[in-house]
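Predict the 3D structure for this chain.
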Amino acid sequence: MPQSPQVFQYHPDSRPAKPILMARGGQESGRVAGETTSAGKGEKEEDPGKIPDAPRLFGNSLVVAVILVIFALVARSKKETVPRGLQNFGEQIVESLDYFTVGTIGPGGGRYTPLVGTVFLYVLLSNLIGIIPGLHSPTANISVTLALGVIVFLYVQYEGIRTNGPINYAKHFMGPMPVLAPGMFFIELISEIVKPFTLAIRLFGNIFGEDVILMVLAGLGLELLHVRGLPLHFPVLFLSVITAVVQAMVFAMLTCIYLSLIVHHEHEGPDGEEGAIAAAHAH
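Done. Predicted structure below.
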C-alpha cells in the first residue's frame, strides 16, 4: 500500500543559534562565539571583549574598599608630629580634598569632606583597577554606579531637610514666583529625581567604553596576530588614567554642587540656583 507523504513542520528553535564554520569533509572547525572544539568536554573559553557579570565586579569593588580601609589604617597607625612617609601622603590627600570641597561648596563645606573624599577615592580607584590584568573596573557596571548615585542623592536630600527644615526644603522646588509654583514644583521635582541616574550613566558610559577599548586592543594581539601579550593597548593606558581621574573629579564636583544648591538655597540671592552653580564653577 502507498506510504503517506511525510509532513515537515518548521520549528523556530530548529534554526542554528550561531554561525558554524565548516571545513572540508563537513567537519566543524575553528571557534564559534567563544567556544572551542573542546566544548563537548564542558570547557568554554572566556571572550576577551566581554565585560564580567555583576558578581565579579562586586568582588572587585570589595577589593577597592579593602585597599582604602587598609591604607587609612596604616596611615593612622603611627602618628608623628612631623609627618613623613605614608602619613605625610595621607595628610596631603585629605588637605587637597578639603580644599576642593570647601572651594566648591563654599563656607561650611568642610563638614562634607569625608563624603566627597570617600566618593572621589572610591571612584578613582575603581576606575584605575581595571587597568590591572585580571581585574575589572567596578564602575563599568551600571549597578555599581547607580548605587553610588543613589547614595549621593539620599544624602543630599537628608542634608537639605536637616539644614533648611521640611518647609523651606519643599519651597526650593517651587521657584521664586508663586504664580508658577505649581508647574515649577513638578519640573524641579523631576530634575531632582533624575540626578542619581545622570551621575550613574555618565560614569558608567565612560568607564565601560574605556574598558571595552582596552579589552578589544588586548584581544587583537591574542586572536588576530597570534602573538601572546602583544601590548597593542599600551598607548590607550595613558588616556585611561586621565579618563579615570577626570571622571572621579566630575563625580565629586557634581556631588559638591548638588550639596551647595540644596544647603545654601536660602542664601543664594536673586539668581537662585544659577547663581549657586556660577559660584561653584568660579572656584
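The radius of gyration is 27 Å.
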